Amino acid sequence: MSISGSKPFLTARWANLLMLNWEVPAAMLEPYLPRGVELDLFNGKCFASVVAFEFLDTRILGLGIPGHRNFIEVNLRFYVKRIVDGKERRGVVFISEYVPLFWVAFIARALYNERYSRVPMTMDVKVSEEDRDLEFAWRAGGSWHRIRSNLQGQPQALGTGSQEEFIAEHYYGYSRQRNGRTVEYQLEHPSWRVWKDVPLSFEWQPALSYGAAWGVVFSDPPAFSFMAEGSAVSVSHGRVIP
């Protein structure tokens, strides 16, 4: 997927993207829908995802902010589409985004009105020739929350039409602004290789992170989960859609 036009607003490398995906009722997501987009379904079903990953070598307009180049993020998101000239633009809408750095949260809220919060966070990764152990942790609602996984073997290409491809290959973001309008921005990255059906363990109280309704959803195991290897990414400047 490529971005044309001006210099990207943000460039970075995303790595170790742990993607946990739950089927949810459409009525739960509709209050978050920005104007001009509709829910994107996979086999007639709505999904929401908790995604934990690393931002590396992050730059704004080509410049790195000291102390803000490398960090982690944990977000809650769902999937939408917008029809432009008869073609689908498949994108994501964020419900919650946790990061450990003040300026990252401030810039995202100020420029895109995204729902970023700065909270204490840690990540632990151990990689050997045989496997890869990961732990993402963040503190919200007065409690620490941890997600762990152990990966074995080598990542594989995304299968065409697979549920993993549906989750990973949304190349737009949409954000509702304070005046009710919708900002669209575009992402560029190559197709990722993934580990499927990754084993998971949780030490969390999701209602403290996301509210009571989401706590009920997340009391069940994910419908499916995987980890993407990641790549370099670019994010365009946002623009208000008609």
Task: Please render the helix and strand layout as text.
Elements: E1 10-24, H1 26-29, E2 38-39, E3 46-60, E4 71-84, E5 87-99, H2 102-112, E6 116-118, E7 121-127, E8 131-140, E9 143-152, E10 156-157, H3 163-168, E11 172-176, E12 182-188, E13 193-196, E14 200-203, H4 206-210, H5 212-217, E15 224-235, E16 239-240
Parallel strand pairs: 5-6, 5-11
Antiparallel strand pairs: 1-3, 1-15, 2-4, 3-4, 4-5, 7-8, 8-9, 9-14, 10-13, 11-12, 12-15, 12-16, 13-15
Describe the structure.
There is one protein chain. With 242 residues, the protein is mainly β. It has one domain (10-240): Acetoacetate decarboxylase-like, CATH 2.40.400. It is 13% helix and 52% strand. Strands 1-3-4-5-11-12-15 form a seven-stranded mixed beta barrel. It has a four-stranded antiparallel β-sheet with strand order 7-8-9-14. A hairpin with a 5-residue loop joins strand 11 (172-176) and strand 12 (182-188). The radius of gyration is 17 Å and the shape is globular.
Largest sheet: 7 strands, mixed, barrel
Tally of DSSP β-strands = 16
What fold name stands as the CATH topology?
Answer: Acetoacetate decarboxylase-like
Q: Which assembly state applies to the chains in this document?
A: single chain
Helix content percent band: 10-25%
Number of distinct helices: 5
Keywords:
mainly beta, 242 residues, globular, disordered N terminus, four-stranded antiparallel beta sheet, 16 strands, seven-stranded mixed β-barrel
